[in-house]
Amino acid sequence: MIRFYNTLSHALQPFVPLDPGKVGLYTCGPTVYSFAHIGNFRTFMWEDLLRRFLEARGFQVHHVMNITDVDDKIMAAIMESGRSLEEVTRPFEEAFFRDLETLGMKRAHVYPRATEHIPEMVDLIRKLLAAGLAYERDGSVYYRIAGFKPYGRLSGKDPKGLMAGASGRVEADEYDVKDDVRDFALWKAARSGETTWEGLGSPGRPGWHIECSAMSMKYLGESFDIHTGGVDNIFPHHENEIAQSQGATGVPLARYWLHAAHLIVDGEKMSKSRGNFFILKDLLDKGYEVRELRYLLLSVHYRRVLDLTGDSFVAARQNLARLDDFVRRLGREQIPQGSHSATAAVVEGAVRRFHDSLDDDLNTAGALGALFEMVRQVNSALDRQQVATAEVAACLALLAEFEEIFGISLGQGEEALAPELVARIEAREEARAERRWADADRLRDELEAAGVVVEDTPTGTHWKRVPRE
Ligand SMILES: [Zn+2]
Fold first, then answer.
1. How much is the pLDDT for 167?
2. CA of 14 to the centre of ligand 1 (A)
3. Is the residue at 269 inside a domain?
4. Boundary-marking domain end, from 381, 406, 431
5. How many CB atoms sit inside 10 A of residue 427's CB?
């Protein structure tokens, strides 16, 4: 049974989709006025894992991710630079898609742009006006929070508490003609120099929150299964999405709301002034590989804060090297036909724990723990020649599942050993066969200096690379 922690109910809940076998998934996308940073990619990467996990469990997932190409920051960038909205946003949108591809993320089925869905937003605002949940002031339209009883349920905030002395917690809005300080803008009246749209009496532009309500419902229906984002989206963004959508339709927008915790760097909040602010290119330029980054971002449970450090990269590299070595060893050893019951039990236990962990609110750390315990025990069973073909097949099946769900390839990309190193390995085997131990030891040391460790096992001599530090 799959369980997710639902922010809306503040509890772990069994996952039951509206339509058996199908999942409607909405993930809040980037605001394209700058490059997405590695904290954004922690959330996007976890969403990729969620999608891959659901698909591996046999669900047909329909995944929608919006592109926010109109909001306050984009307007500010347009006013500052004198460039058009497209000139400001498209280069960052293209960069975002390049990064997704570099990171091996599955593409969403739809990437709606906010600017291409203004009529849907206007319709939704009209419904809210008709329902008395919105009102117009000086050409802008605001949402009347007092009219929506469940307001605050997602974030656990008391709507009354948002009122007085809490201005810092309420979205700062430059328009101060609202009936109530808590109310937020659905439509912002045109100001000189801004890109504006018609449709609501006075020209203007949509507020950020209405974008996601309109686009999620257009592509996934009034009610769908899962809505995700980072924890900083819970309030006000997702709280407001619920108020807008449910206020207009009378039915819940999404049934499961999942949120990823923050990413910090070397124990500190990422910020440009601290010099610990990274976009994807910065990390690739440091020499980190994409699969190391994927492993690192996914190895920590999504509801825990992830601390990105140099050590965590070294650990990711070493752990992947262990898995690579194991895959290569399974492909290389002479394995007898049949099954070895003790080892079969070890592998079965690991498979069960791997599945149970992921089913339990995507506990990736638990799943990886099960995988590495299997590698350790099967390696030692291989040393004792207690592994047969059935166990090898079961191990490879679990490793293939890991590769699919984590989006990481194992045992590949390893370039062949340089010919002079192969010659040294052969020379060492010859020396051992002829009992010239001093020569064999010298060759072993030379290989180690070149980053290659040789191991003599009952099934022959094997080599592996020493993980780079
Ligand atoms: Zn959103």
1. 43
2. 24
3. no
4. 406
5. 16
